Amino acid sequence: MAAEAEYESVLCVKPEISVYRIPPRASNRGYRASDWKLDQPDWTGRMRLTSKGTVAFIKLEDKVSGELFAQAPVDQFPGIAVETVTDSSRYFVIRIQDGNGRSAFIGIGFADRGDAFDFNVSLQDHFKWVKQESDFSKEPQGQDNQPKLDLGFKEGQTIKLNIGNIKKKDGSCKPRGNAGTGGIALLPPPPGGKITTPTGPVTTPVPNHVTPPPINTPSSPDILLDLGSPVPPPKAAPASADLWGDFNTASSSLSSQAPQSSSWVQF
C-alpha cells in the first residue's frame, strides 16, 4: 500500500482555467458565480488533476513553465474541498492549501462546458474506485484459502443416465425364424405393396410317381348326363335357330342315353 501511495497518476488535464477571488459566503445557500467578476479573472493557467493513493490533487500550473501556482488536496467528493456553484455548471469553489497548513477558498472556471464535465466525472470515477478498494479490504481474508468445489470427473469415473418415457417404434424388431420350418425367416412384405398369389396349379415332383395325363374337360354341359360313355360332339345349330335350342328335342334325343331319372331336362 505504501508503494501505491508514492505513485502519482494523472486523471485529467485542461489547458485553460481561470482563477477568481471570491467574497466570503454570506449564507448557507451556497456560492454564486454571478457575484464574481467573471470578465476579470485574477489568474489564468492550466489545470492538472492527479491522484496519489486515495487522495486527488487539483493542481493549478503555469501554461508555459509548468510552475505550480496552487493545489487543492481532495479526500472526499462531493465535500468541502470541491463545491459547485448554484447558478452555473462551469464554475467551482475549491479549498487550496500550502505547505504550512494554511488554506483559502478560491473560485475556478472553465471556458468550455465540456471541460467542466470531464473534471467532474474524473473526480467521481476516482472516488468510486476508492470505495471499491475499501469494500474489498473489509472482506475476510480467509475466504481465498477455502477449498473450491471440484465438479470435474476423476480418472475412470463414469455416470449413468436414466432416460425414461422412450418407446420403441413398431416393426423395429427383426423377424425371428420359425422352429417348425428349420429356422427359415420370412421376409416382411414390401411397404405399400401387395402380395401376388400365383394363379396356376403348383406341382411338386414326387420320386417314383407317374404323373397321370390331363383330363380333357368338354365344353358341353351334356357331360352331366352320362359319365360312363364318351360324349358325342354337339350338333351345330342353324344360324336362325334359338341360342338355347329346343329343350324338347334335346330331351327326346338323349332319352336313350340318360338314366331313368332324367326329368330335370323337362322345364
Strand order of the largest sheet: 4-3-2-1-7-6-5
Note the quaternary state here.
single chain
Q: How many DSSP E strands?
A: 7
Characterize the biggest β-sheet.
Answer: 7 strands, antiparallel
Q: Identify the overall geometry.
A: elongated
Protein name: Adaptin ear-binding coat-associated protein 1
Function: Involved in endocytosis.
Subcellular location: Cell membrane; Cytoplasmic vesicle, Clathrin-coated vesicle membrane
Region (Disordered): 170-267
In short:
This protein has 267 residues and is α+β, with helices and mostly antiparallel strands.
Question: Can you tag this structure with a few keywords?
Answer:
alpha+beta; 267 residues; cytoplasmic vesicle; transport; elongated
Summarize the SSE layout with pairings.
Elements: H1 2-6, E1 8-21, E2 43-52, E3 55-61, E4 68-74, E5 82-84, E6 91-97, E7 103-109, H2 113-138, H3 247-253
Antiparallel strand pairs: 1-2, 1-7, 2-3, 3-4, 5-6, 6-7
Domain NECAP PHear: 7-164
Biased composition (Low complexity): 193-209, 250-267
Subcellular location: Cell membrane; Cytoplasmic vesicle, Clathrin-coated vesicle membrane
Descriptive account of the structure:
Belongs to the NECAP family. The chain is α+β, with helices and mostly antiparallel strands and 267 residues long. It is 14% helix and 21% strand. A seven-stranded antiparallel beta sheet has the order 4-3-2-1-7-6-5. The longest helix has 26 residues, at 113-138. The radius of gyration is 61 Å and the shape is elongated.
